Structures are given as C-alpha cells and as structure tokens.
Amino acid sequence: MSQSEIGARIRELRKIKHYSREVLAEKIDISTKFLYEIEAGKKGFSAETLSRLSTALSVSCDYIMFGEAEAKYDAERIICALKILEPHQIRMMQDIVKVLYEICRMV
C-alpha cells in the first residue's frame, strides 16, 4: 500500500468517472494542488479525505487503500464506467455481456 499505488488508483478512478482534477478536488473539498500531490504519491491524506474520495469515486475505502481485487470491487468499477454511457450503449453492453456469458458456459 504505497502512496504511489494509492495515488495511481485514485487517478485511474477519477479518469473512469471523467472528472478533471479540478472537479474531483472541489467535490472532496481539497485544493487541486493537493489532489495532484496525492495522485503523484507525494502526499498522504486524512481519513475524512479518504471517506470523501470513496463517496465521490463510488468505491470502497478498502479499494482506494488496498486495491482489493475481489469481484465486489471490480463490479463497482464496471458500474462507474457504465454510468457515463448513453442508453443505446448500455443495451449494446448488455448484449455483449450475454454473449460472453454464453461463451464462458461453453468452456
């Protein structure tokens, strides 16, 4: 759980949500510079900031801190990515998932 790994996860999640650094910093009530330093692994942050990050990025605090790869957290990341799609894109994704599910059942 190095600061650089945590920062990289935060940056990745921010990009998935299509937030600029400025937008996320405003949502969690910190400066843009401080968020940059967190993402660069140069600064740590408080439990309160962690809680705000978790809420703003729609993931658990555990995922931010430890990068837990359990299915629950993977599902949260997929849901975040799907939230930005248009309805017709979501229907296409549903069709793709159905096909992949059928392929997995055959293997």
Question: What topology emerges from the helices and strands here?
Answer:
Elements: H1 3-16, H2 21-27, H3 32-39, H4 47-57, H5 61-66, H6 71-82, H7 87-106
Helix pairs in contact: 2-3
What is the gist of this entry?
This protein has 107 residues and is mostly helical. Helix content is 73%, strand content 0%. It has a single domain (3-106), classed as lambda repressor-like DNA-binding domains (434 Repressor (Amino-terminal Domain), Orthogonal Bundle).
Q: Could you list some keywords that capture this structure?
A:
107 residues, mainly alpha, 434 Repressor (Amino-terminal Domain)
- One letter per element, helices H and strands E, the order comes to HHHHHHH
Structural class, please? mainly alpha
The name of the CATH superfamily reads lambda repressor-like DNA-binding domains
| CATH class descriptor name | Mainly Alpha
CATH topology: 434 Repressor (Amino-terminal Domain)
Share of β-strand residues: under 5%
The total count of helices amounts to 7
The low-confidence parts are none
Q: What integer is the average pLDDT? A: 90
Which CATH architecture would you pick?
Orthogonal Bundle
Write down the domain tally.
Answer: 1
Secondary structure: number of strands: 0
Q: Termini, distance in Å?
A: 36 Å
Q: Helicity, in percent?
A: over 70%
Multimeric state of these chains?
Answer: single chain
Structural description of this entry:
The chain has one domain: 434 Repressor (Amino-terminal Domain). The protein contains seven helices and no strands. It has helices spanning 3-16, 21-27, 32-39, 47-57, 61-66, 71-82, 87-106. Helix 2 (21-27) packs across helix 3. The mean pLDDT is 90.
